[in-house]
Automatic annotation (TrEMBL):
<feature type="transmembrane region" description="Helical">
    <location>
        <begin position="26"/>
        <end position="50"/>
    </location>
</feature>
<dbReference type="GO" id="GO:0005886">
    <property type="term" value="C:plasma membrane"/>
</dbReference>
<keyword id="KW-0472">Membrane</keyword>
<dbReference type="GO" id="GO:0004674">
    <property type="term" value="F:protein serine/threonine kinase activity"/>
</dbReference>
<dbReference type="InterPro" id="IPR045274">
    <property type="entry name" value="WAK-like"/>
</dbReference>
<keyword id="KW-1133">Transmembrane helix</keyword>
<dbReference type="GO" id="GO:0007166">
    <property type="term" value="P:cell surface receptor signaling pathway"/>
</dbReference>
<dbReference type="GO" id="GO:0005524">
    <property type="term" value="F:ATP binding"/>
</dbReference>
<dbReference type="Pfam" id="PF00069">
    <property type="entry name" value="Pkinase"/>
</dbReference>
<protein>
    <submittedName>
        <fullName>Wall-associated receptor kinase-like 1</fullName>
    </submittedName>
</protein>
<keyword id="KW-0812">Transmembrane</keyword>
<dbReference type="InterPro" id="IPR011009">
    <property type="entry name" value="Kinase-like_dom_sf"/>
</dbReference>
<keyword id="KW-0547">Nucleotide-binding</keyword>
<dbReference type="InterPro" id="IPR000719">
    <property type="entry name" value="Prot_kinase_dom"/>
</dbReference>
<keyword id="KW-0067">ATP-binding</keyword>
<dbReference type="InterPro" id="IPR008271">
    <property type="entry name" value="Ser/Thr_kinase_AS"/>
</dbReference>
<feature type="domain" description="Protein kinase">
    <location>
        <begin position="100"/>
        <end position="371"/>
    </location>
</feature>
Length: 409
């Protein structure tokens, strides 16, 4: 049959119903096809979306677990028995810090932001939240948990606990109310002028804390980031050493935690920069810089680029016999000449280029404590009340005694 004949048969009334049937069937098939295809496409999209969503949730969970796992790993490889910090719940900390409201920020560091938090029982805490979530930062947080959970010392910040539920780890500390030593010395000196006695006491307390870390904790711990902005003060100007993110205990060093050449410009031990080998004398150097800050009220490094830095300025002023020109006014007014010279010489010894010639922290702590006691004697005569806690108040020292010069004398 040729095509013309075929077309004719289609218009033939008899075959018309077939034709209609075919058309209807095609339409049905066509529509069903679209329906199936659309359904199929929707299903495919839904699957992809679900998959992505699940993956995100999984990643979130994985990150949470990473912190937990790394922490457990470190604990099992070290001395896990010392771990006693409380585990906080996320909700608790969100409530305490008003959802990490900016108005609660106490300080911002390289590593994390610290918020002021009020717990439901009214106690105030400081909550540190990591800025980023990468492995290095996690490890630094874990490091801090590990180090601080081994320590219970009046002049070292207390870690109350941590929160492992969130992606970013949260660490909870005791709240130290009066800001940092750096703020008092440099930012607004008139806000909280620190008297000479308080400066001496702060120096002795920090030295005591470092001496404890170096020789009294179960394994030697090097702080590695001593600076005036890491020394907190409470309302009685009690000094509290904080920020142990870079600290290393000798035991931890033997495991696989990455060593970061850390520290802060202006406080860095030149020998440590050269060798890359952290040791106790690098803390001594940094402590020497803090002592120089206490004497002069000047910053370790100023924003002025042409500035040679406090260390060089201080040492050259001593060499040229014009130390009294660079002293802070309060120090010059209140300090006795022999006291100031004693501390200045101590600074010089701490800043020696050859690390081996620097005194140990224990020796420094003992010397400063002795100076303070002599001064305390003279204060008593004048019936001076300052309200600071004497270091002999052993009952306040929680369960670890500071090594004081009692054992050395
Ligand atoms: C943060 O706190 C301030 C003051 O308490 C408040 O006015 C503000 O609404 C809070 N912001 C958020 C995002 O909750
Ligand atoms: C520190 O405490 C003193 C009183 O103890 C107070 O006058 C001063 O304002 C406080 N400074 C800061 C920065 O909180």
């Amino acid at each position: 049959m040729n095509s013309a004949a075929y077309i004719f048969t289609l218009f033939n009334p008899a075959s018309c119903q077939y034709f209609c049937l075919i058309v209807v069937l095609s339409i049905i098939i066509y529509c069903t096809g679209i329906g199936i295809a659309t359904t199929f496409l929707i299903l495919v999209f839904a699957c992809v979306w679900m998959h992505r969503k699940l993956k995100k949730i999984e990643e979130k969970e994985a990150k949470k677990k990473l912190f937990k796992r790394l922490l457990q790993q470190q604990l099992s490889s070290g001395k896990g028995s010392v771990f006693e910090t409380k585990l906080f719940v996320t909700k608790e900390l969100e409530k305490a810090t008003d959802n990490f409201n900016e108005s609660r920020i106490l300080g911002k560091g390289e590593l994390g932001t610290v918020y002021k938090g009020m717990q439901s029982d009214g106690t105030i805490v400081a909550v540190k939240k990591s800025n980023k979530i990468d492995r290095d930062q996690l490890l630094q947080f874990i490091n801090e948990v590990l180090i601080l959970s081994q320590i219970n010392h009046r002049h070292i910040v207390k870690l109350l606990g941590c929160c492992l539920e969130t992606e970013v780890p949260l660490l909870v500390y005791e709240f130290v109310s009066n800001g940092t030593l750096s703020q008092h010395l440099h930012d607004d000196p008139s806000a909280g002028m620190i008297t000479w006695e308080n400066r001496l006491r702060i120096a002795a307390e920090v030295a005591g804390a470092l001496s404890y870390l170096h020789s009294c904790a179960s394994t030697a711990i090097f702080h590695r980031d001593i600076k005036s902005s890491n020394i907190l003060l409470d309302e009685n100007y009690r000094a509290v050493v904080s920020d142990f993110g870079l600290s290393r205990s000798v035991a931890i060093d033997r495991t696989h935690l990455t060593i970061l050449v850390g520290g802060t410009f202006g406080y860095l031990d030149p020998e440590y920069i050269r060798s890359g080998q952290p040791n106790d004398k690098s803390d001594v150097y940094a402590f020497g810089v803090v002592l120089a800050e206490l004497l002069t009220g000047q910053e370790a490094v100023s924003s002025d680029k042409s500035d040679v830095g406090l260390v060089i300025r201080f040492l050259s002023s001593m060499k040229e016999n014009r130390l009294f020109e660079i002293l802070d006014k309060i120090v010059a007014d209140e300090g006795l000449e022999e006291e100031i010279l004693f501390v200045a010489k101590l600074v010089k010894r701490c800043l020696k280029l050859n690390a081996r010639k620097r005194p140990g922290m224990k020796e420094i702590a003992a010397e400063l404590e002795q100076l303070r006691r002599i001064k305390e004697g003279s204060i008593d005569k004048q019936n001076f009340q300052d309200g600071y806690c004497s270091i002999s108040e052993k009952s306040d020292f929680c369960n670890v005694d500071l090594i004081t010069e009692d054992t050395d004398e």
